[in-house]
Structures
1.
Amino acid sequence: MSLTSAYQHKLAEKLTILNDRGQGVLIRMYNIKKTCSDPKSKPPFLLEKSMEPSLKYINKKFPNIDVRNSTQHLGPVHREKAEIIRFLTNYYQSFVDVMEFRDHVYELLNTIDACQCHFDINLNFDFTRSYLDLIVTYTSVILLLSRIEDRRILIGMYNCAHEMLHGHGDPSFARLGQMVLEYDHPLKKLTEEFGPHTKAVSGALLSLHFLFVRRNQGAEQWRSAQLLSLISNPPAMINPANSDTMACEYLSVEVMERWIIIGFLLCHGCLNSNSQCQKLWKLCLQGSLYITLIREDVLQVHKVTEDLFSSLKGYGKRVADIKESKEHVIANSGQFHCQRRQFLRMAVKELETVLADEPGLLGPKALFAFMALSFIRDEVTWLVRHTENVTKTKTPEDYADSSIAELLFLLEEIRSLVRRHIKVIQQYHLQYLARFDALVLSDIIQNLSVCPEEESIIMSSFVSTLSSLNLKQVDNGEKFEFSGLRLDWFRLQAYTSVAKAPLHLHENPDLAKVMNLIVFHSRMLDSVEKLLVETSDLSTFCFHLRIFEKMFAMALEEPTMLRYAIAFPLICAHFVHCTHEMCPEEYPHLKNHGLHHCNSFLEELAKQTSNCVLEICAEQRNLSEQLLPKHCATTISKAKNKKTVKQRQTPRKGEPERDKPGAESHRKNRSIVTKAIVWLAGYNATTQEIVRPSELLAGVKAYIGFIQSLAQFLGADASRVIRNALLQQTQPLDSCGEQTITTLYTNWYLESLLRQASSGTIIFSPAMQAFISLPREGEQNFSAEEFSDISEMRALAELLGPYGMKFLSENLMWHVTSQIVELKKLVVENMDILVQIRSNFSKPDLMASLLPQLTGAENVLKRMTIIGVILSFRAMAQEGLREVFSSHCPFLMGPIECLKEFVTPDTDIKVTLSIFELASAAGVGCDIDPALVAAIANLKADTSSPEEEYKVACLLLIFLAVSLPLLATDPSSFYSIEKDGYNNNIHCLTKAIIQVSAALFTLYNKNIETHLKEFLVVASVSLLQLGQETDKLKTRNRESISLLMRLMVEESSFLTLDMLESCFPYVLLRNAYREVSRAFHLNRVPASTH
């Protein structure tokens, strides 16, 4: 087809007109369906008993109704023919509109096929969107037509009355009747009609693939990408938020789902022949159980698709795909969308706070506002349509959200911000258009290799229009109008997307990118309100009023959501956006709906407020009434009767015991405040979920801020309330005997984080100063680094305080001592062999026979590693406590640290431990851990003497030293430079050995340094003998294990590098570091290359 005919076909204009017309026809079909399904609004003669035989006859004979020879059946129709014509004219003409719309749609689709148009949502966005919208709108019209049960009766009765009145039937009736018959099974007929359009439709849909995948990411991916965050990259905060396809960024996912589901439903042939089409289709099937046709009318995606494909040959695999996708949706989509809503609550709250504080950012970051609105709207509409239609489910919680009010409120807040600062947006984008877009577009036009006259005229007009803009237009309040420019760009897309066009848009993507940018910028000047409607319209609630009211009721029941309940009456203003000029009779009805529910919500909010105020007033009245003189008589009488026992009277039955005035001021319990803090922790014993300490700290600070602000009005001693409540939370149980956050976090860190660290799914990384999760499926449901880095430890110390941290420490030490008890048992079992090893460790031949006789060596290493993990966590917690203590009490921290420095090896051990206990309470690290010494001392000693206990302690170090070479066989014993540790946590062995040795030999009053030197010598000999081992499996990670010796010295204040050099040559350590570094970088090369 020639370019001239492409101009003449006016594809852009026809798509624009037909899409608008299609929406009107669709709403009329919906209105007819709704009217005829309700007996109150149904045409009256359809309910008359005298008319029943006529209706049955018309329905049976349709469309071949012999009016002249059927007077017996059609008598009632003849009597009321004028009334029938008056009532049914609008209905009949609406059906004729469907037929005419159908004719125009197929004519346009055939023209587009003849032009061999190229569709790509990333380039010709308007052209592609309008094309897909037209297909979906047309399909929706036909499906809705087939759902009108009385369609045959309405059309047939009107034609009968018309023929009776005018002597001939309506001219459109024959074709209209045939069309109605054809679409009794609409999808079967539609798929036949759309077969020739498969190439164009599938091409347009495939262009969505990358965008659809990106927009269907989960909350974790959004969180990793820091979606919608303005503060994640402060230097780029004022940079303009641009994209090659601006309109795609806020394109509704629900709209894309409709395109894909309906598009592939009609053109299903490509699903068996094109793997890309199949991937996109399957991905879309995993998103929703229902998609919206119009308002509350939906398409049950999997059922409809399965029913159609089951009737077709060769579609067995596709039916299996549908069933698999349905199971995936039922199992996963509820939680998937729940997590996305949770993310959006936090992300959009942050966005709204930043924009409210710095509205100037609405200039460069306006796109973020519309993206946020679109994302919220998608999640809300998904929830609404599934809550409405999913009636039987094993997981009803997937389709209920008690916090939805907050999301609706944030949507309204963003809308309000955009409206309030419209001038900021206009000023920024006017300058952008005039000073940047116009220049870039001019350069691109000049660099085009081919530019026909028509296209040249259009593009030149773009440049001149943009160049003429100036800031005075905004200052003077001038009304902008760029709809002509956008329509010209739409035309240009159509001209440059036909097969024989001299200028192809897909060969000039830069032109498309800059024009898509210009279109968005122009909309920021003249149609911000339309864009707000496009991205955030929630008029769907007008047709899901039961769900809307239920959500409002949930907001009123949830105390934390009450502040957001005002969003519901605000959303009632959206209802007006769902009207169409082709169906004006709807407007009064929808207007009344909106006003009624707005008033209803406001009345309920006013009622709640009124009740609260009245309760306060009633309480004040009761307190005032207690002070009346008449009530003092009882008190005086009781006081008098106390003096004379004989005159004491028993109280009358039924007489209430009155409290004295002022009793209400006595604090009965603080469970309300303390329970609130525990509730903020969000602990779930079943799933072992808990809020991060930093998040809880932020919540507590907000809670305290509110109480303090409230105290200004109430005159209450808020500080005392807060201090007492927080102090209770530093104890294991509060005054009511309930668990506190101290207990909750102690249990959680022990049972969740440290237990998994002991099993190897979480490792301690000295480089990151945090525990980090290893990527293993099904092991843990949380990210360890989010709960254990420096900031979280600081927050934990802030929340638990010194008392709570001491409780945490005592629990940690209990676990340490339970491991020490088991270690001692292992030493006792191997006592004789260990004694011989201690005496003969330097004799290789004898050692070769003794070492295999040891039992439980791996168990010893494992238990000591567990102790090291626990002590490493405690050290991090202590460091957090030290920072908090230094911040709150710097004047105390200085003297404590100074006092600790005066401790020398010659200081009396009792004095040393007392000073260390004081320092430890402030979070200061000590050479000897007083908590560990106390915990080991409290162990119940058996019948063994102190000398035997001391011997066991010495042999424990020997056992550990000769067992170290066994670690080399473990594949996880490779030293990671990146983490500064090992994946099996054996680097924690060093802390365990040093601190346990210091505690044990302090307890037995022995020299710590001497015994650690002995350990160093025996360990060195054992590792040096490993170098003579010929079995490669046993020496797999020899170099990495050698580095433990250096780590041991670094960990201890009792050992030095000179001591290590005397028994383990430093050259071996240097070679080990070089070998580990080489192996580490070699392992990373394939990954980075891949």
2.
Amino acid sequence: MWLKPEEILLKNAFKLWVTEKDNEYFVLQRRRGYGEGGGGLTGLLVGTLDTVLDSTSKVAPFRILHHTPDSQVYWSIACGATKEEIVEHWEWLQQNIMRTLSVFDSSDDITSFVQGKIRGLIAEEGKVSLVLEDDPEKFREALLRFEKWFELPQKEKLVTYYSCSYWKGRVPCQGWLYLSTNFLCFYSYLLGAEVKLVISWDEIWRLEKTSNVILTESIHVQAHGEDHYFSMLLHLNETFLIMEQLADYSIKRLFDKESFQREPALSDPLQITKRGLETNARSEQFRAFFRLPKEENLLEVHESFLWVPFSHYNTLGKICLSENYLCFASQDGSQCHVIIPMREVQCIKAHTPALLSRALTVCVRGKRALRFSEVRDYERLANTIRSRCGITASPLHSASTEVTHFYYCVFLSLQGPCVTNPFFSIILKEKMKEQSWNIHFSEYGRGTSMFFTKKTRDLIVRGVPEALRGELWMLFSGAVNDMATHPGYYTELVEQSLGTSTLATDEIERDLHRSLPEHPAFQSDTGISALRRVLTAYAYRNPKIGYCQAMNILTSVLLLYAKEEEAFWLLVAVCERMLPDYFNRRIIGALVDQAVFEELIREQLPQLVEHMTDLSFFSSVSLSWFLTLFISVLPIESAVNVVDCFFYDGIKAILQLGLAVLDYNMEALISCHDDAEAVTILNKFFDSVTNKDSPLPPTVQQASVGNNDKASHVSVDISELIREAYEKYGTIRSEEVESSRKRNKLYVIQTLEDTTKQNVIRVVSQEVKFSASHLDELYYLFKRQHFLSCYWTMNSPVLLHHDPSLAYLEQYQLGFQQFSMLFSLLEPWTLCTGKSNLSLWVFRLIDENQDGLVNFREFCYALDTLYSGSFTNKLKFLFKLHLPPGRGKVDLQAYLKQWQDEILKKEETIKDLPRINQTQFIQFSKTLYNLFHGDPEEEALYRAVAHVTSLLLRMEEVGRRLQEPSSPTKPATATREGLPSEEAVTSPESSDASSTHSGQDAGSSLSEVEWSFSFEQVLASLLNEPAIVSFFERPTLIQTRLDQAKGTQLKVKANK
């Protein structure tokens, strides 16, 4: 069968393979232990190993590798169970591929062509027959094993499974890796030794591919401070991709709601599939590469050749089709790519095979045509494009002649006549730049269907002309497509947000005059009003982000070169697509990119790392670099050049420039003695950066520099700095950056969660007697219980209430159902009956604001009282459980009084407690009986409670007679006879019966005589019973309950 091409570094793999046939580009190999000869001892070992492993882990005995003469890298492209099958594939390659390869000049082109052909064959096979991994019968068997071994709730959705080895210490365990929606599970049973591992995705700190001396390739998972390694995976890259997708999905859904977008394939956690995850991953890569709106999904991919008119040759690449765009990228993504909005397509021509080989021509506006050839199923593709081109066309964006930028006109008016202007030569250079771009447009096209090539990047690095900057920013960021597909949207937002008053609008008003305050464009109401409208409209569009500091600085620069509506869509592109999660309360995106930056420093600047081992300094100092794209640290005329590169290359451009800045100041940073000195060095460097080709007036340039003292510093031209950044660090690939982003996002999120935990534990530890380690374990169980209510639904009330921006204690809360399950696992009376009622009363008591949720502090308060409280405190807690609950939520005055009492640390005394009536006292007695159930001293405890009950009733009767001597005693006597007596109560059954009977009698006589007890009376009576005092003062170890809860928490949920 044909295989998805995968790289193999060792062709012979320690002599496990024997070459049967080979030529210049392909090698056919047989695995030792199969076929003729057997292979001696090595063949015997290999054959035994393959026999022991299950069917999915076996390596096929025959395979075909692809290679090129000048490369040591081999690619597996086919495998076979029999020699006849592999020979059939070999002959097909000889007849169909070998002749074509001779026309290629580059080895990379040959490899890319072969890979494309193999993927095309796999796609064709997939349409005819089911892939073995999707075999429903095998998957059903795996699902049954998954449910049996791990006992997870039945709602848990198994996504896929793989055979692999898990390294426990130095010994590998061969078993099965199961990947479900919420858990990573592994099971192995060999020679009586069972290994079972269950890790939830939200607990993972690290997920990465690694290699070492023992394990050539493995997947490393870090959770709970432990490292886990999985190796010998048949499809390691595919497995890692699925794991990465599941971890990212879990993190977004549970921790980072602000960035979670409900994809159709991922909207329901009960319906996630392997195919859905793979489709979502491809669509994400597609949107990121072509800068398309988040609504676009990759629908079809076709390999083809595209005729490149400026180079006069056909380039091999892929056609990518979405709902509203036709895109093409060459084989490595760097030579050229084209984005064609369907709204710009005017006609499609499918050529007959007699004229051109399976070709179609796409005609777009501007009298341009793009010709694709060697397209499989080209007629169907042409019909698909035609059917999607019915979208109402919109005018092209052109800024060079028609669009007048506000600031550009201001600056020209300040220049005066060019003849006498000292900046005349600079303006000539500016005109030369414009001419270079116009030539580029004539060759490569202009507007949305322009060819993006290496030459485009070269022009960007040299600097963008002032007159074209707004147009190119819109084009490179994809904002031009957003604006074209949403006509009138910005105007509606401005009208709707006009006059609104929110926290975001208050912050915007506060920062308006801090945005480039000395710039001429923002020294009048015109510029300030435009800035206000753009920021307010965006805050109205995206209330989850609203407004964050640094957005005002970025928007100010956008308004200098783009129209107001264009600046709005540029801001949308930056906040929602190019810098995801940057502009929220936790700035997760910026923290992630700082972690990526640290990794690059370690790789690219080892000399600096040797002298500054603590790289956290660079994280703190570079935060403003990422948040404002260097605008806040560089002069404005230099910063805009950085923004040019950012809109073309994304965050990669900022990372490259950051490395170049550190490299330029390497010697000074190495010799500095502390962080303050290093900050001073970098600040002076940024102040010395100039743009010698900038046509901005001198007044603006001086106003943009924070420190104008450059006498002792050699000036650095921004164009040279950017060019050096691309020359030294341009090899950093965008794919590597995105992979590092995903890897570091797990660590950043978990670090923030750990900070939350430490802060919560620090606050709670001052109020309870639990040790720090116990609080740590309690927090783990509490947080896990929170997530157990979120795993299998999108509408969990607890998940909807979760808000990372809230105070630490309020971030994780439990509803009654979750609290009841966890409390039943941790309460000290293991044999207690009637736990559901007890849980309800405890929940009602500790839910002080009566919002139906309890936080960790409230939860710990209840457990601490029951475990560590004195006899009086425990009894008082049980007494308060039976008092009537408050009515509704507390009003403002009650809340203020409660807050004042907390400030004054007013201690509640036993005299402050209200009295309990007959019905409440009977229930209080029943609760005591339930607590004593199963205790070794059960009989003595029952008699003690009955004795106390009788004593209290006699005291109440005597008190009534003294206060009301003329009143009849019959009702009181009847009540007394209905309550349990010391002689009558000897078992829980009799206590329940008598209590029920007393409740009925009490209900009939309550209207005649009402009686009640104070807590002081109850406490005094119980203190006279040694058995009860001993029961409540008996020490109970919480560690035992914690250990049991860890093992049974998931099982309890599964049984519900």
